[in-house]
Amino acid sequence: MPETLAIALAQLNPTVGDIAGNLAAIRAARNACGADLLVCSELALIGYPPEDLVLRPAVIAATRRAVENLAIDTASAAAVLVTTPWEEDGAIYNASVLLADGKIAAVRYKHELPNYGVFDEKRVFAAGPLPEPVDFHGARLGVMICEDMWYPAVAGHLAERGAELLIVPNGSPFERAKLHQRVALAAERVRETGLALVYVNQVGGQDELVFDGGSFILDRDGHLVVRLPFWKDVTQSASWTRASGGWTGVSEAVAPVPDETQNTYQALMLGLRDYVNRIASQAYCWGSRAASTPR
Fold it and tell me: In angstroms, how far is CA 193 from the centroid of its own chain?
């Protein structure tokens, strides 16, 4: 059983609907990460939030093909944990899919679907059961997608079922002081389970939402050992060592938190830039012509 594990956090800027472009970005991050496993943010393959695109069969088929192609790549490259819409028995789930050794190794569904404020996932997704841990390179990974971390049920179930490390893909929009709320909730899950936690958020603007990044890692004591820069598309690898029956992250760079003025400025600039640049690309990707002939 290996005693070390390298996990890369892919804090990318996906474009909603641009499956080919998002796939290319994930591949580029994987090829450059030098890790055993690349972890992407929530729905990084289709972009977040996908809204009614999830209701289009052509889109679901295109994401499935992209996942299958990405899985083939892992026969000779790093494994990837990617979140994507996933159809099973007529229902569409918000799913994290582990791709390793050239195949789809595991699929886990989001259990807690947010349905407040800017979120309306219950309209387009089915809620999955409490997820089971995923085995990867001798480690048991507990995958909780975004809202799953905000309540104790999913983390508690994963810990009871033998998870050794919590992995949290996110699409968490920027709000003032929200960073501290994210870290506080993550620390609660760590205290409840005694497990380290990897939190991967996205960056970029999508319509009225903007995402600030700030992905982070907490060790088993709840200490912040890694934080990625805010407002930047970046991938960073973190080393893990098995110790005393659990996995401990090696302390890496901890990026500073911008002050309120900097955060507001970055949110306005990034949100406006991506909104303007993506209007044409989204219409091109899934307009009336593309809907019948998905690329």
Answer: 21
Q: Check if 146 is active-site.
A: yes
Give CA angle at 145 (247, 126), nearest 5°. Answer: 145
Q: In angstroms, how far is CA 153 from the centroid of its own chain? A: 19
Instruction: Output the six-digit token pair for 289.
Output: 């012509």
**Residue 206's closest CA among 26, 13, 73?**
13
- Identify the sign of the CA torsion 101, 106, 112, 114: positive
Task: Specify the pLDDT at position 192.
Answer: 98
Is 42 part of the annotated catalytic residue set?
A: yes
Q: Return d(Cα 272, Cα 269) in angstroms, integer.
A: 5
Q: Is the pLDDT of residue 39 over 90?
A: yes
Q: Which of 241, 255, 292, 220 is nearest to 11 (CA)?
A: 255
Amino acid at 60: I
The catalytic residue among 33, 40, 146, 285 is 146
158 pLDDT higher than 70: yes
Nearest Cα neighbor of 52 from 92, 112, 24 is 92
